[in-house]
Design goal:
Layout lengths: L1 E7 L7 E2 L4 E8 L16 H11 L6 H6 L4 E8 L2 E8 L5 E3 L2 E2 L2 H9 L15 H5 L21 H12 L4 H24 L2 H8 L4 H21 L6 H37 L6 H12 L10 H53 L3 H53 L5 H14 L5 E7 L8 E7 L5 H18 L7 E4 L9 H17 L3 E7 H5 L7 H9 L1 E6 L17
Parallel strand pairs: 3-11, 3-12, 10-11
Antiparallel strand pairs: 1-2, 1-4, 4-5, 5-6, 6-7, 8-9
Helix pairs in contact: 6-12, 8-12, 9-11, 13-14
Length: 570
Amino acid sequence: MKLIELSCSRPSFKTLRFNPQGLTVIVGDADADIEGDEGSSNGVGKTLSLGLVHHCLGAQVNNKLKAAVPDWLFTLRFSLAGREHTIARSGDGSRIYLDKSPVGINELRTRLNACGAFILDQQISGLTFRSLFSRFARYAKEDCLHPLLTKKEEEADGRLRSLFLLGIDCTLAVAKKNDRIRLVQIKNTKKTWNEDHILQDIMRAGSNPRARFEEIEQEIPKLSAALHKYQIAENYRLLEWQESEITKQLRKIEREIAGLEFLLEEMEKRLEDPQDITAAALRSLYDGLGDIFKPEALERFEKVEAFHNKLYASRKIRLEKDRLAVLGKKHRLEQEYKNKAVERDRFVKNLQAERALDEYVALAKHLASLEEERNRLYMFFEMDMTLDLRAREIREKILADDSAADEYLRSNPLAELSERFTRLAHMLYPNDPAGLMISNNTGDNQLRYDISVKIEGDDADGINSARILCFDWTYYMYGANHTMDFLWHDNRLFAHIDPHPRAAWFSYVLQHSAQAQKQYIVSLNTENLVSMKGYMSQEAWSALNESIRLTLHGDKPENKLLGMQFGSAG
């Protein structure tokens, strides 16, 4: 893949035409070329040109670009496998055209994955055009901090992609990453099971899950047998109501009988009592009346006494007759009570033999809940055992892969690339030990191999940038699994390198990129460019200046890449 031209639909844009091979230089001529976090928001547009290449090749939309020039259409011409292609994309990213045909962003990325710029291995997850392209065009500040990692990249993924471009067999690296992911998944699954509501209830109750399981195993057969024998009366509630009505009737009869018994007691007392007035009392009463009334006005005493005796006898006969009537009614009520009591006893017996449907349902639900609890516990024990077994198998596999990785590393697969990297590093820093080293990582992590990209003193910004330059060049020129014919390094990777090693670097790449018929694209501040002159041969210096394809000035907005002020002033 080679770049041909970056252009725009607006005439103010400074079209960038790339040299077909060898070095292409973009110079930023400004008194204060201050780069922002995104690489170009405060500058003249050196890094923005790299950002626009990313934009056309399917990157996430730059919000500053979207806000400033949403309707501008940027076009990248490039060649791939001898054929020329174009990708045009609006500043807001909403319109994309591949070879003049509209496409969506997902389709564009899919087409780029399959374009052949990278020979993607489907067995390695996370390998995409975008994830690998960032290593050939480090755009964000975070892309330029470590040779193995780019912005927002997990360490395991970054190492794996670097191994892939170096041509290292990634089989064991992928296996360890996947195995460790599976172990984490097993751990999380076990945690989820341990948080199951049934298990939590058991734990809160202070029970042991295994003991609870055995308890349920014994209880379920008993409940099942009881449920099987259960007789359901569909009219249970009617029977229960009828039994209640009969009981009410019996209570009423009992009250009536009690009332009759009280009445009989009173009648018997009256029957047993003597006459209200004796003959002597009657005589005394009659004599007293004689003192008040005239004798001839009163009846003879014998007649009065006879009348009284007749009245008493008549009342006694009537009372006896009433007593017999009450006694008869009492006997009838007692018989009715006996009959009702027999009928009620029959209902009670039936109710004891038969039960209501809702009671049956309640028992069935209880049985079902126990069975669910038992099944849940059984699944937990089975799952727990299965997960433990699987985890043990994975750990055993990782141990076996540890040995396989040791055996693979004995072949020293990075030897040739390490030698080339060391030559590049010694060209810049002749006295500093340098090299690429790979070792087996047997730790509890997703990393199969530890890769060391080393130039002694690389904790300093300049030397760290130099090791990134050398590492990128190594897999660009001598790596594997790609057909990329251009490498782009931004000014931020040169800013902290001293002029002497920087001049040595450009003298080297001027020769070797042209010989390899590949493109090497850089952006430089004027200061970083001019400071190398005293350390380069006249021929190299001339070749470097002849490689300049675009010079951007910060004196006026129209002399910047977009021909306007983009982002903050400066």
